[in-house]
Amino acid sequence: MNNVIENPTLMANAEALRQNARDASQMLKAMSHPDRLMLLCQLADGAERSVSELEELTDLHQPSLSQQIGVLRREGLIEGRRDGKHMFYRVADARALAILQTLYEQFCGAP
Amino acid sequence: MNNVIENPTLMANAEALRQNARDASQMLKAMSHPDRLMLLCQLADGAERSVSELEELTDLHQPSLSQQIGVLRREGLIEGRRDGKHMFYRVADARALAILQTLYEQFCGAP
DNA sequence: GCGACAATATACATTATTTTATTATGAATA
DNA sequence: TATTCATAATAAAATAATGTATATTGTCGC
């Protein structure tokens, strides 16, 4: 009788956990691309960067870069602001920022 | 002259950053799958779980479950130990554990 | 040790879906 | 008109989902 399947409370929790896992995995998926992660890293300090600045890091064609930026934007990870001819982007999701910080500690931390 | 492209130190840092981003994105990719993330969540406390236990959470066919476990194993995120007929898995990468903890805080934390 | 069963892993094939690169074009602003 | 950025369209490539079959390893009863 102590079975997860037969316990409605645990069932609900399991379902909530599953939903959280779906949300989280969707965000991770958006981040789990080398170029997109590089872009996010440039924004990980919370500051804004223009597309031109971001372009310097990746060696992507301009449309590809714009496309990757579009993915991050549609997933709500970043938001843009226009200033004259330039677009400035920043990380717009606190959860993403927290993950980026952990990634920095774990992958770029001191040896 | 204050150009990133022409500064060898920054160049080296950029290349190191790129490599870190590649490493990190590879790990994120392994985690960015709802079923695999659910599996990892079950192991996020550092404890071991048998495949049978893990199976209760996902509604995957056995071969599919085994395949996802295989992905995590090949990426080095988990390691297994055999005990009789059962295999017990645990998270085998401290970086993954740190990320999982952050995910828990951000996606399962109190409102 | 042998046969039967249980738990897990692997192999493979198939189909569907995603991702990526490329080229071209469009819109906003200076 | 030149810059900066975004979008569209599309073809190629990679990845994922699913199902079936089979292999491996171990247990237990004999």
TrEMBL record, chains A, B:
Record-linked Pfam families: HTH_5 (PF01022)
CDD domains noted in UniProt: HTH_ARSR
Top-rank taxon: Bacteria
Record-given protein name: ArsR family transcriptional regulator
Entries under PANTHER family matching the protein: ARSENICAL RESISTANCE OPERON REPRESSOR ARSR-RELATED
Entry keywords, A to Z: DNA-binding, Transcription, Transcription regulation
Domain HTH arsR-type residue range list: 16-111
Gene Ontology molecular-function annotations: DNA binding; DNA-binding transcription factor activity
PROSITE patterns noted in UniProt: HTH_ARSR_2
InterPro entries: ArsR-like_HTH, HTH_ArsR_DNA-bd_dom, Metal_resp_trans_reg, WH-like_DNA-bd_sf, WH_DNA-bd_sf
